[in-house]
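Hi everyone,

Forwarding the result from last night's run.
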Amino acid sequence: MSAGMIPIKKAIPIIVVAWILSLVTTLALVYVSPSIFPPLNTANLNDDAVVANKIADGAIITTKLADGTITSSKILDGTITAVDIADGSILAIKVADGAVTTAKIADGGVSSAKVADGAIVTVKLADGSVTSAKILDGTITALDLADGAVTAIKIADGAVTASKIADFAVTNLKLAAGAIPFNATYAVSTPSTTLTSWADMPDMEVSLKLNRVSDILIMFSSEAWVSAAGAANMILVRAVFVNETGTFEAIPPSGTSLTILTKEIADDMGTRSFNFYVPSADTTVSTVKIQWRLWNAGPTGYVRGRTLAAIALPA
């Protein structure tokens, strides 16, 4: 053993004593340190003592933030997302004028309540977008129709009634050919008769096609004479109307002074005219005839240049 070295048996007690003293010292520091070194709090910190690198990432939680401390300058531009905004928190005053563009409006998102009265002006309507279903029944007035806008195809058949036609408005040009049934005939031959019973006068017959119940106006004129003078030596005439239901005598009836064609003088030629009519004639193809006979037997009756015309007027 070298001089100055402590034998192992003497060193062990020294080590043990040193360890015990160290333990006692540590316990004493733990016990008395709160009173010697109080914990750190706001009062122990100097102003501006806590700098950024002294704060752990994620250490600042909601409860550590005072109300109203986060200003616009503290929020990074573009970092506020939809989930950060509470439902219903965007008020009208927060939306800049002109900020809501077409792309920001959801399809079908603009309801009737969102459109101001009178806001939809003509230029906002697409051509052809206003259909019949969008026009309230009975609201199109005369002022809404352009002059000449109502064409023939727009008028329903039968829609123009008598009250819709101005007085004297239907001119001759407005009537179709044959719109008023009419027929006429003329003859220059000189037939004769000795009959005292009714017979058809040659060439004095016309046909009419009636499209409605009509009043038939019949006009007849002729030159006529008898071969012998004498009382009641005269020619009588009448008009008859014939259709599929029968033969009808026109008014005035035969046998009256209104139907005498000649005078009681031999060979005294004269011309006479007669008007007859048939009221409420049926709607069929009809025939109008002039018939003649002598008042008495004996003389011969003659006719020459003669005319028959018939016209059907609405009954």
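The first strand starts at residue 182 and ends at 187.

Cheers,
N.
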